[in-house]
Design a protein that fits this description.
This protein is α+β, with helices and mostly antiparallel strands. It is built from four helices and five strands; from the N terminus they run H-E-E-E-H-H-E-H-E. The longest helix is centred in the middle third of the chain and has 17 residues. The two termini are 19 Å apart. It binds guanosine-5'-monophosphate (5GP).
């Protein structure tokens, strides 16, 4: 079920629990700012999630409240993950769902990286 992408932040959301090591994940990258791991239900041959280590519900509060250092550190990590996985030459899609209409299900800000085949339309046609 899509969630509100707006605060308050729930410290017991799934990604917070993965960050604390309470739930397992297939980790692909970690640094001071971010953790990246494979999505549990991949929508493409490569489907990796990159999350900041700090508690923000969505792109909205991350970009409004995080420090410049956190934002830069996080997006550098996203780029590093794509590079590390060899996604730059074939290309990839980076996506962040925000709030109900965005289809966001986990209220800890995250970026999806999709790759491994041509990804088609950016947004599905209206039903
Ligand atoms: P959202 O819709 O919030 O942008 O994306 C949430 C993503 O988290 C979904 O693609 C979903 O498959 C993934 N996900 C949900 N629970 C887990 C989990 O426990 N582990 C992992 N690795 N991914 C999860």
């Amino acid at each position: 079920m899509p969630v509100s992408g707006l605060p308050p932040y729930d410290p017991d959301n799934i990604f917070a629990r993965i960050l604390r090591g309470e739930l397992p994940s297939r980790k692909v990258f970690e640094d001071e700012w971010a953790l990246a791991f494979h999505d549990i239900s991949p929508q493409a041959p490569v489907h990796v999630l990159v999350i900041p280590k700090t508690p923000y519900c969505s792109f909205a509060d991350f970009t409004a409240e995080a420090s410049t250092e956190e934002i830069a550190g996080f997006f550098r990590a996203v780029g590093a993950v794509a590079r590390m996985l060899g996604l730059e030459a074939p290309g990839y899609r980076m996506l962040a769902n925000m709030g109900e209409h965005g289809g966001q299900e986990v209220a800890h800000f995250h970026v999806h990286l999709f790759a491994g085949r041509p990804l088609g339309r950016m947004v599905p046609a209206a039903p």
